[in-house]
Write a structure and sequence with these properties.
Pfam families: ABC_tran. The protein contains 9 helices and 10 strands. The protein has 243 residues and is α/β, with parallel strands linked by helices. The protein has one domain: 3-Layer(aba) Sandwich (Rossmann fold). Bound molecules: adenosine-5'-triphosphate.
Length: 243
């Protein structure tokens, strides 16, 4: 579905993505993990067309995304911090985005309902709590029923009930065959939601395989522990082999 071919991104002399090659498939959900500054957001922005690679190509359904815009309709994106016209109400933001998209298919308003956002349609964006803003961003990401979902720290700032609502929704969409990419520093969420791990370090792709395999290779049952093994230079792998 998404094919990333030798993508390199330099900011001046600094290499943020180093010849990354990666295939992302429908029906899988990917945990995009790495330390701060490892290139996760740069990779997401490159897929979204907001950052232009220095070299390499990205194709979606075998079509290059470079100099192409229409493909973005296939992606639902939930940013870490949603930026909206601050004087508009929640209801106006939804209406505006629906008008811009001119979407002809059915809308997925499940999250609007589960988060009870309609009750807050009259509230202006600048008055919202961080969690309510996250709910608006989540509801917008799913609204047009896109086959690809890119969710940047989706559960950050949400209350426990809302976290479970969003996690159930993500799982449901993944099970319906969508491609989901999630960045998060909350390993337990990723453990619940994702099937595959893409681990970046200083712009290099360090791991790209199923979480099931990672757990098997490291002998760990929890994703957080398995990743710790991976980043402590395969210490656990050596321990497993020698034990
Ligand atoms: N526009 C830019 N100009 C210069 N350097 C940039 C730019 N955008 C990102 N970088 C650098 O690229 C590197 C990767 O940044 P990126 O935001 O992709 O990291 P990240 O893995 O998402 O980090 P975090 O976990 O902190 O969100 C960082 O060193 C960052 O300073």
């Amino acid at each position: 579905m998404i094919s990333i071919g030798k993508v390199n991104k330099k900011f001046g002399k600094f290499t943020a993505l180093n010849d990354l090659t990666l295939e992302l498939e429908l029906g899988k959900s990917y945990a995009l993990v790495g330390p701060n500054g490892s290139g996760k957001t740069t990779l997401i922005k490159t897929i979204l067309g907001l950052v232009i690679p220095t070299s390499g190509d990205i194709t979606i359904q075998d079509k290059s995304i470079l100099k192409e815009w229409a493909y973005r309709e296939k992606i639902g994106y939930m940013p870490q911090i949603g930026r909206y016209p601050e004087n508009m109400t929640i209801g106006q933001v939804f209406e505006m985005i629906k008008n811009i998209r001119k979407h002809t298919g059915a809308l997925d308003e499940e999250l609007i309902q589960s988060f009870e956002l309609e009750k807050m349609y009259g509230k202006r964006m600048h008055t919202l709590s961080g969690g309510t803003r996250q709910k608006v961003s989540a509801a917008l990401a799913f609204l047009f029923n896109p086959p690809i979902l890119i969710l940047d720290e989706p559960t950050a700032g949400l209350d426990p009930v809302s976290v479970e609502i969003l996690k159930d929704k993500i799982l449901k969409e993944k099970e319906s065959g969508k491609l989901v990419i999630i960045t998060s520093h909350i390993m337990s969420d990723l453990d619940d939601l994702t099937t595959d791990l893409v681990y970046l370090f200083e712009g290099d792709l360090i791991y790209n395989d199923s979480i099931k395999n990672l757990k098997k290779e490291t002998g760990e049952t929890k994703l957080g522990k398995a990743i710790s093994c991976l980043i402590t230079q395969n210490k656990c792998l050596t321990e497993l082999i020698t034990s």
